[in-house]
Amino acid sequence: MRPRVSVQDAALRNGDFSLRIEPVRSEDAGLYEARVAYNMEIHSCQVELGVVTVTLSPPGPVVEHEPLLLTCNSSHRASLVETLWFHNGHLFPTPRTFCSSPGALSIVRPAMSDAGSWRCQLRYSDNEIISATYNLQILGFDGPTNPVVYAAAGSAAD
Predict the structure, then answer these.
(1) Average per-residue pLDDT in the chain?
(2) Less crowded by CB within 10 Å, the N or C end of the chain?
């Protein structure tokens, strides 16, 4: 996993043998074990790393009015019971222009107002709640719906 992992040598002297992974990838999910030998004793601990991802389809820049799909997945093993979506911190209702399926949100005709922070919240059968955030950027025209630009003949217009 190098060079994405590190251990802080200075922290080891204080009994902190934490492992830092940056950036975390989906394939990093699983059980991790640390073993430390000190004064003829071996100490160990196990930590399970769960990973949640939000992906955009199709990948790349989103163009206004072109359909998109946000998908939220987690490595949690229990069965998914509920998916909630939040847009800019507010619970997002799913009107008819938005189609929601387990772990996914499809926006049929995205508008500039759909840009911003999207957070999915997954609730599982064991009552575990997991969430992740995706910052959605949309390319489009953010101005009047029928703009009119006047320019003098012979001059430049932008």
Answers:
(1) 87
(2) C
